[in-house]
Design a protein that fits this description.
By secondary structure, the chain is of the alpha/beta class. Helices cover 45% and strands 18% of the residues.
């Protein structure tokens, strides 16, 4: 029997945190929830996630980037999805435009909020190779 995949979900918006957690739990994943960067960092001390879904802007404008760097430093093979509302809030496209920018971001996927459940499930399956 295959072990249930663990997904760390971090967002300071409790509604978004619960929404993403429900989507992933319904797919059979074990979800570890953290409300914000600090709780996310604490969760990484006790959990090795198979994948992480992180909000970009939490307590600080760069909280998602910082947390993504922590995940990749501790667990380099763990895929990371960054969720961002930057495009909806500002109209700016936040996708890295160069390989240099993409290498700094460290995330495997950037997704715009509001996230569509089917799109999230598809990316998670692709990244976990399930």
């Amino acid at each position: 029997m295959e072990t249930q995949k663990k997904i760390l979900v971090v967002d300071d918006d409790i509604d978004m945190l619960e929404q993403v957690a429900l989507i992933l739990k319904a797919e059979g994943y074990q979800v570890i929830k953290a409300q914000g960067q600090k709780e996310g960092e604490e969760a990484l001390l006790t959990t090795i996630p198979d994948l992480a879904v992180l909000d970009l802007m939490m307590e600080n404008m760069d909280s998602g980037f910082v947390l993504c760097h922590h995940v990749k430093r501790l667990f380099p093979e763990t895929p990371v999805i960054l969720l961002t509302a930057v495009k909806a809030a500002t109209g700016l496209d936040f996708q890295p435009q160069s390989s240099e920018a993409a290498s700094w971001v460290k995330a495997d996927v950037l997704m715009d909020k509001p996230v569509r459940p089917e799109q999230l499930k598809q990316e998670v399956r692709r990244l976990l190779k399930v």
